[in-house]
Amino acid sequence: MKVPAKPIRPGRKTWPPEGAPVRSLILEEELAAGSMTVLERRRLGLWKLEHRLGRDSFWTLLTTEDGGGLALRMACWQGGGEASAKRRSQGWDIHCPLGLYTVVIHAQEEERTLLRWTTTFTPVTDLLPTVSPRDVYVLGTGGAPSWARGEVKAAQRGLNSGLVFFTVEAEAALGAGLYFQNLTALNPYFEALGTRPDGVVGGVWPEIGYQPPNSPAIYGDAAHPLRGGEAVVVSDAYLALSPRRPPNCKESGRLFLTLLGDIYRRLDKPTPDHRDWPARAEQTLQDLRRSPKATIRHYGDLYVHPYTASEYPDVMVQLAVLTAMSRYSRWRGRAHPLEAELAAGLSRFHHRPLGMLRRYLPNVGKDKDRDAVDSWYLYHPLMNLGRLAQGGHEEARKLFKATVGYAVKAARHFRYAWPVQYKARDFSIITAERNETGLGQTDVGGLYAYVMIQAYEITGDRTYLDEARGALSAIKGLGFELNYQANVTAWGAAACISLGRLLDDTTYLDLAHTFLASFFHNCLIWESEIGNAKHFKNFLGATCLQDAPYMAIYECYESVAAFDEILKADVPGLSSGARMLMAEYRRFALDRSWSFYPDALPEDMLATDIRNGHIDRELSFPLEDLYADGQPAGQVGQEIYGCGAAFVFASIAFHRMDGMPFQLFCDYPAEVEQIGEREVGVAVYGPDDCPCALRVVDAPEGARISVRMDDEPLEAKRRQDHRQYVVQPGRRITVSWCV
Predict the structure, then answer these.
(1) What share of the chain is helix, strand, coil (3-state, %, to 5)?
(2) What is the C-alpha to C-alpha distance for residues 544 and 641, in angstroms, rounded to an integer?
(3) CA distance 142 to 3
């Protein structure tokens, strides 16, 4: 039954509030006047849920007894006009002067409240949408936006996930919420209008949520309209609510991951394709060995070009390729001769007077500042030296021990808050801040802590653990500004997990959630089909820097390696949301990363104006950059130091055992151990409630293979080159065979 809404009192004595968004004042006035028509009232757990028809919008109100809560604008026809609403099985049809809105609503109340609404619009004639209002308004006591007190903790950056995470200061059922706009469903809308969803989710308190991107026609550019009579999804929104307000940044990170996990579980996700990373790794080895565009000699030693036939040898590049290759050598059971050649020239980067690893060789050209240090660049090569040392490489151990002292000196000088770039000799700052926020390389403390833990494990000196503790303790109050570079942030999370275990201190687990929340805030949790982006996989990609416009493979595969390390540690207290997002990032990276290789892309979408070197589609080296808005790929260049992706993905996802006549692939982290002459056990790590793929690859013809989970046989889906089984983490999995 349609009844008038009860009027509310104005939110403040000095109403309207100074500086409030105009739309929130309009809503406040409309609520105060009681002019909306109530279409339906019901309970949703602690909430009172109402559907209302206003002067130009269809609303759903979620309120508590004191009137506080949220007003959700699920459809809007600008300019107003008479409208009618008709109930349907899971939502409403709203007829308005512009056309028909169909709103489908799903609501559930379990431990936390979760809503989803999908709005489809069928215009009566061809339309060019103009500036639209946002769709979420926080209501204070009495139902007034002007009384709402709270804060936006994180909002969409660029073309990353369309989300806004907010907290509310109220003694009511609402303490925090995560709004998520499923941009995948909106691809046809973006294509129809020739627009893109750049920074469309955010807002100014108390008006937040999604604001559809404008038609370029507003600015005088040519654009296609929404076609009359053709239905298009204009919103597919999720809202996860928590009654608890997190008291600090650490708790905010954990809650963000929990709410994002709630939503992610319900998203329609693409199906990853199987990729032959071992074959890609072997081709990469051949190209590194044979192509003059890949390597160069200095002082008689062999060094890797950072980009195709371009740029000077670089210690980070050399060690990134060498460490990944060493990992692959252990997996394949034999070292490639190139590994020893690349290791032989490492000492040339050692600047003995300062006791540090310099970025360039002593003979670098005058166009480079050999004294400049990029903060993360000091510690990343040390991390890879530490890996080699822990793997038994004696020269790497000596070089690590000879240079770690300078690393500590630098950290103490900057009091564990690093600038972007400084001078090696006197620590004078070249570039202090990354942007107008006043922040430097905020996540370097995590990478430094990781190196310090390695130093402790290599030397046994507990002073290094004190250094790790000092660096992580200095990371306070950064929250979602913590991420500077994706892989560095991921290693910071791994450092927190390791240090917490070594010191038996669970507070570092909270900090790990902060690192991970900042990482996943910068992810593309949707599949863009804008322009050229329709030609490559991009779901769950991470932009390489906090303000970068592109995804990069180097940061991607390193993040996967860090997440594997965290998940295999199987630490109690790591939230289910964190486990799931890390495992899922890995799953999609094993497919998505294939698209970075130029031979996997249409030739006409490759960049022709290239910053570093050139693109050679015949070489099995990846491009540095892919863009969610469909810009030409590879504008930065074809990065040879990214070739470690094939080595790392082959060695972590494909499992080999002596006597096992096939390989086992798992898209979640896994460990395989021999338990019988023709039987292995598989331990899979990740969230217990998420299934993943286990594949038997390259099995001999006629082989009889049995895969069991908790002693129950599993049925295989046969593909041309593998057999696929669905398994779950935390279950007992065995694979046996007879040839």
Answers:
(1) 35, 25, 40
(2) 15
(3) 19
